[in-house]
Amino acid sequence: MTEPRARAARHKGQLNFEKELRGLLFAHGDDEDPLPETVRVLDEITTDFIIETCHAASRHATLNGRQKVKLEDFKFVVRKDDRLLGRMMELIGMEKELKEARKGFNTDEGKVGLERSGPKKRRRAMKVGEKDEDGDAGDDAEDGDDGMEDMMFGPSTSMAG
Questions:
Q1: DSSP states of 51-88
Q2: Which of 138, 130, 108 is nearest to 150 (CA)?
Q3: What's phi and psi for 151, nearest 5 deg?
Q4: CA distances (Å), 105 to each of 40, 97, 98, in order?
Q5: Contact of 12 with 60, CB cutoff 8 Å
Q6: Torsion of CA 109, 114, 115, 120, to 10 degrees
Q7: When comparing pLDDT for 48 and 138, which is higher?
Q8: What percent of the chain clears pLDDT 90, i.e. is strictly above it?
Q9: pLDDT tens-digit map of 68-97
């Protein structure tokens, strides 16, 4: 970026990406157990890059009159690096695809007792004087009918039978 910042004292000596960098170095032909100095230097470079990018995005948001940093601010910061911007856009696209795919799955499938129109909602929805399935005015608590047999066996049959 522009100028190197002094690393904050709380981050000095702490490796943030040690595991990932060891794997990256091994994937690019280094030894399975790389030198600790190599990992430390790469970790400092990576951490400094992330900090500088976040500061630049924050600066851009401030210049645009916003207090919150948006994705557009990060796109603006990396706009001159085609490779980085392309990878960023690819990851954003994959995140959107995954989010859409998750929406397609029925997450409450197989869960017992989570039907939308439970006995309480039915009682609230009934008008004054209207009869429910039992033929009474919805006083299921009085006759011992808590609606469990409706959830387990369906509204057409009951356990008391």
A1: HHHHHHHHHHHHHTT-SS--HHHHHHHTTT-HHHHHHH
A2: 138
A3: -70, -35
A4: 43, 13, 11
A5: no
A6: -170
A7: 48
A8: 53
A9: 999 999 999 999 999 999 999 999 999 999
Q: Which residue has the tokens 């990256």?
A: 24
How many angstroms separate the CA atoms of 103 and 113, rounded? Answer: 22
Q: What sign does the dihedral 75-81-84-85 (CA atoms) show?
A: positive
Q: How confident is the model at residue 151 (pLDDT cuts 50, 70, 90)?
A: very low
Using CA atoms, how far apart are residues 105 and 120, in angstroms rounded to an integer? 27
Tokens of 140: 């299921």
Tell me the DSSP string of 9-63.
Answer: GGGTT--SSHHHHHHHHHHTT--SS--HHHHHHHHHHHHHHHHHHHHHHHHHHHH
What pLDDT does residue 153 have?
47
Separation CA 38–CA 18 (nearest Å): 10
Residue with tokens 């939308």: 116
Whole-number pLDDT of residue 117 = 54
- Please say whether the beta carbons of 2 and 53 come within 8 A: no
d(CA 128, CA 90): 57
| Tokens 């919805």 found at | 138
